[in-house]
Design goal:
Layout: E1 2-5, H1 10-22, E2 27-30, H2 41-44, E3 54-57, E4 60-63, H3 65-75, H4 86-119, H5 126-146, H6 160-174, H7 179-182, H8 185-195, H9 198-204
Parallel strand pairs: 1-2
Antiparallel strand pairs: 1-3, 3-4
Helix pairs in contact: 1-3, 1-6, 1-9, 4-5, 4-6
The structure holds glutathione (GSH).
């Protein structure tokens, strides 16, 4: 199995976390985003939208991180990351969708402004950070309410939904806006719980 991705990419990290949780090793083939390798014909042949990650499993190619993590969870042995109970599974899907629709974009925007642009010597814009923080805050308020009295997004079971949020919560930490997490007690306790897992420690170190 090969993952075409980058160790610092949020979407790749979701996939690597699932692999680590399942106790499975795959070959990470680094696509050099700084050099634009994701837009070269070789990579476009794997991913027509020119982004990462891509999974190659024998003669099967799959792109889109949330599709890849579902595939890996079903395919690989090891602990299941999908609840079996109907409503818990539906909640997992709901929170995967919330992450994609209302959380990942503003969280990544903050990381670009606060971390990646300065790293590349590019000008950042604090007004973009402020607007993105407001969007993140709104989403985390909803998550905080949902996490009151339950350990994980889908209920009592750690699932793909929790994994899909982790790289974006980490964006907030590296961007020095972790108050967005810490100011919300249920989100803060959940982040502490999930980020302490060995799989995440392996992927984020
Ligand atoms: N919806 C896609 C998003 C993929 C994506 O945006 N990947 C980023 C890295 S996390 C990327 O390749 N960025 C480079 C670019 O946009 O050119 C997924 O979930 O896989």
């Amino acid at each position: 199995m090969k993952i075409y991705g980058h160790p610092m990419s949020t979407c790749t990290r979701k996939v690597l976390t699932v692999l680590a949780e399942k106790g499975h090793d795959a070959q990470l083939v680094v696509v050099d985003l700084m050099k634009g390798a994701q837009k070269q014909p070789e990579h476009l042949a794997r991913h027509p939208f020119g982004v990462i990650p891509v999974l190659e499993d024998g003669d099967f190619t799959l792109y889109e991180s949330r599709a890849i993590i579902r595939y890996l969870d079903q395919k690989l042995p090891g602990p299941s990351l999908t609840p079996t109970e109907l409503r818990a599974k539906a909640l997992m899907d709901q929170w995967l969708s919330v992450e994609q629709s209302y959380f990942s974009t503003p969280a990544v925007k903050i990381a670009f402004q606060r971390v990646f642009y300065p790293m590349r010597g590019q000008q950042s814009d604090e007004s973009v950070v402020e607007a993105a923080k407001a969007e993140v805050a709104r989403t985390l308020d909803v998550a905080d309410k949902a996490l009151a009295g339950q350990e994980y997004l889908a209920g009592s079971t750690y699932s793909l939904a929790d994994i899909s949020w982790m790289p974006y919560l980490h964006c907030l930490v590296i961007s020095k806006v972790e108050d967005l997490i810490n100011d919300r007690p249920n989100v803060a306790a959940w982040w502490k719980r999930i980020s302490a897992r060995p799989a995440w420690a392996k992927v984020s170190s």
